[in-house]
Every structure is written in C-alpha cells, then in structure tokens.
Amino acid sequence: MTSQIDAGGVGINLQAASVVILMEAQFKPSTEWQAIARVHRMGQSRTVNVHRILASDTIEEHLVRIIKQKANLFMAYAHESAIKDSSAMASDPNQSSIEDELLELLAIECDDRNIG
C-alpha cells in the first residue's frame, strides 16, 4: 500500500505490511512514529523494516537532524515523569520499546550519514 504519511498514520492498521519507507521527513517526530506504529499493531507476525529515502546535501537532511534533536528533547523532558516512574500502569511498555527502536533507527541513520 502507498499512502501519504498523514493519511497512513491515522485510523488504519497495516499489520499485513512488513516494510515502511519514509520518503519525506516530517517536522514532528510523532507523525513518523505514528505512521510506523500502524505496522507494529497487534497481529503483526513479521519483522518490520523501516527505511528512509534521503538525498545528501538537501534541506531534508537538515530536517532529519532537527527531528533527531527534537526527539531527544522530547524523550529527555516530556516523556519522563514521576507518575510514570512510580507505576507500571502509567505507561505502555510496548509503546516505549517501539519509540526506543525508532530513536535507535534514526540515530543509526544519522550516524551513517554523519548528521548531527
């Protein structure tokens, strides 16, 4: 299935998919996370591979650097809380593992391209 990220990231489950290709960087990291999470739904039995098409020396490359910085800020300040730390019921352990996986993927991609 081919979809714009805004349409493919909301309201549908894509468990039958096993590959996500991001072709346009989004300024909000959560937009990409949500689109990728549509493939990581209950019932997904295969490994999901996420790829980003990114040309070097472009605005997109700069945007990916900014996205990485925003994601790191979010994880450091907004995502952590005393309530979450005090109760296992305050967070979704599956969601945090997906976020960790996505941040790791972004970090690897940026390291491979010597970004930020």
Describe this entry's structure for a reader.
The chain has helices spanning 5-8, 29-37, 59-78, 82-86, 93-112; strands at 19-22, 49-52. The chain has 116 residues and is mainly α. The protein has one domain (5-111): Rossmann fold (3-Layer(aba) Sandwich). Helix 2 (29-37) links the parallel strand 1 (19-22) and strand 2 (49-52). The chain starts with a helix and ends with a helix. The mean pLDDT is 74.
Task: Please provide a brief summary of the model.
It is built from 5 helices and 2 strands.
Largest sheet: 2 strands, parallel
Q: For this structure, what is the CATH class?
A: Alpha Beta
The structure class reads mainly alpha
- Portion in beta strands: 5-15%
Number of strands: 2
Highlighted features:
mainly alpha; 116 residues; globular; 5 helices; two-stranded parallel ribbon; 2 strands; Rossmann fold; 50% helix
Strand and helix map with partners:
Layout: H1 5-8, E1 19-22, H2 29-37, E2 49-52, H3 59-78, H4 82-86, H5 93-112
Parallel strand pairs: 1-2
Helix pairs in contact: 3-5
